[in-house]
Structures
1.
Amino acid sequence: MEMPPKSPDGSENEKSPQSKELITSNTGSTLCMSSRSESVWTSASRSKWDIYHKPVIVVSVGAAVFLFGMVITSLSYFLQKNKQVYKMCGPAFLSLGLMLLVCGLVWIPIIRKKQKQRQKSQFLQSLKSFFFNR
């Protein structure tokens, strides 16, 4: 037979894992942490690479694909064998590389603007908490 716990003050000998979790956890902070990403709540600064690594990778891949397209396009002028294939594939790689290159280059100022807005927002929140928590 299963015996229910005697009292919630901890006088019973064996506690279930669920009751231990409920007693020891801070539900308010747990809810806040789970509702948003940790980067919003932590004040640790991120390195430049952590912030800009995605657009740098996109720019690098775009530049490589663009250069590959230039090589393929130039091969259509120098080689007579498979000329039609080079003429079709070269411009396709050129346009794809240029698209990735431009997207990455536009992405960098957007990230800078977001970083400035986030810094302003954190500053205004600290001012608000300073004045209203008195």
Note: The CA atoms of residues 26 and 80 lie 74 Å apart.
2.
Amino acid sequence: EDDSLEVHSLKPGWKEFMERNASGRFQCSQCFYKWSSAKVHILFHMCWGMAWMRIFRQACRRCQDPQLEEPDFSLENVERLLHNLVLKILEDFYGVPMQPSDLQEVVVDTPVAGPHDRSHCEGCQLGVC
């Protein structure tokens, strides 16, 4: 994991993959409020034998001065994310053809209420969402 990764800022020989709609659960470290989001973005930078990722965080909407929080993912969603990453590695580095329909949808495993809260999303603040 590398929180300094930036979209479209790649070292020579590296490839990029962005998972845009992962489902995650968050908990505020200050007030312990819990929320779910179906718009968790995960950026992968890949090179031969190596993959780095950055998970974009979200902040609590109830706290005055909230911190950015890391999401938790269900085991099923982690498996789907890794499946998609492997497919992208096979396509980008081994020339295995892939169709967009080959990627598995990362399922919403908890109820998500309301629209995406752009003002508390790290990805939105950085222009990724």
Note: The helical segments are 75-94, 122-125.
3.
Amino acid sequence: MVGEEGAFVLGWDEVLTEEELSMTLKVLCMSEEEFKEYKEQDGWEDDSEEEENSTLSNEALSRLKTPCKKLLYDSVLLTLESYGGDLKAEQDLLNNKEAYEKLSRREQQALHVRYGQKRILHQLLELLQ
């Protein structure tokens, strides 16, 4: 469901791997009975047209059903925990010119990437509350 990399790609305005995320949330939020029925009815292929017409914009994410929102919210929290450090500490480092300039070029680039990723994840948390 999640492809080879096992991750979803989120942008500022929408989920870039929306088909994978939609299917994953749908399946993970099903009861065992619903899953068996869905699988028996070859539901995997029936939903492709429906999913092509829907986008997981930020607005759509905020309207997910409660179980899906909770699952996604908890997943985002786990992802943020894996980063270590918080968003504010990295923002402070970016704003502290002296400390920032002591970092190597590679560390500066990594800081920018990490900070951007964390900002997107925090934005997603706000949408899911």
Note: The chain has one domain: 18-128.
4.
Amino acid sequence: MVGEEGAFVLGWDEVLTEEELSTTLKVLCMSEEEFKEYKEQDGWEDDSEEEKNSTLSYEALSRLKTPCKKLLYDSVLLTLESYGSDLKAEQDLLNNKEAYEKLSRREQQALHVRYGQKRILHQLLELVH
């Protein structure tokens, strides 16, 4: 359903793997009857043109139905828990010039990547909470 990596790609303003996330949320939030119908039709062949061309912006995520928002919220929490530290710890390290300079160049780059990832995930949490 979500491809080989099993992950969704989020940017600052929208979901970059929007088709995968949209389909996954639709399927996971279906009733048993809706899922049977989905399987029988081999997916949605009659998607509206508007739905095909829409982007899954963060604003659109905030308008998802409650079950889908809860699923997304819980998934983001699980992802955040997989990190060894929280957003505040990363921010504190970035703000502590002495500690930051003790890190190798590679550790500094990894810190910036983790911090950016966590900021995006926290932004998503706020939108779907």
Note: The mean pLDDT is 85.
